[in-house]
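User: I've been going back and forth on whether these two constructs are worth ordering. Before I decide, could you fold them both?

Assistant: Sure. I'll take them in the order you sent them. The first construct and its structure tokens:
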Amino acid sequence: VLLVESGGGLVQPGSSLSLSCVASGFSLNYYVIGWFRQAPGKEYEGVSCINNKEKITWYSEPVKGRFTASRDNAKKTIYLQMNSLKPEDTDLYFCNAYPWPSADWGQGTQVTVTP
């Protein structure tokens, strides 16, 4: 089972990025999928999650109103649209399935927000 996150980058405050999460070895379609971020030496921080059928979403307070999770089950891909990015959003971002972690953590995708 391999999770692959992509879409990170180096941007200025106020910019947007769209992250993607795909999996090999199992189908994401049957799982609640969460997005997490991790700063060096710190624990994973839950950012958002989306369930598999009703696509109900949850967001942590720091990102609420700025980030939007979505999924395309036909493409077996989970997305995290990140708008109005702030320097404090700088982190390595990961996805995983509930109960987390259901799969080994992937490499993550780096998001760096700097003036």
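The second construct, handled the same way:
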Amino acid sequence: QVQLVESGGGLVQAGGSLRLSCAASGRTFSGYAMGWFRQAPGKEREFVAAIGWSGGSTYYTDSVKGRFTISRDNAKNMVYLQMNSLKPEDTDVYYCAATTGGSLAWYSRNYHRVTLYDYWGQGTQVTVSS
């Protein structure tokens, strides 16, 4: 089992940057593939970025490619989301999520599915002003 705590959200002007962090409890962090999702009030939670167990495989939704970077540090039980060139439409609550995920091949086809992830953080608010 793993517990997740996000931090790093806040208010930033359009074009600015934020770095979200997700701290994971437990001694088996490297056994989880990790994802970042976001959700606006009244909308479904949507995929943002994901990273495989070793950090060698990363995945992004099209709207953030080239602007966001996901990374992980298994020695520190941390996953990060560096967000650059932020836009007002990036305003959302951002959630960190973990899954044991199955094989890499299977994960590479399903990383974007909310239902794949077993553990979720409480979320951190990101607000981008125009």
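Notes on the second construct follow. The longest helix spans residues 104-110. The first strand starts at residue 4 and ends at 7.
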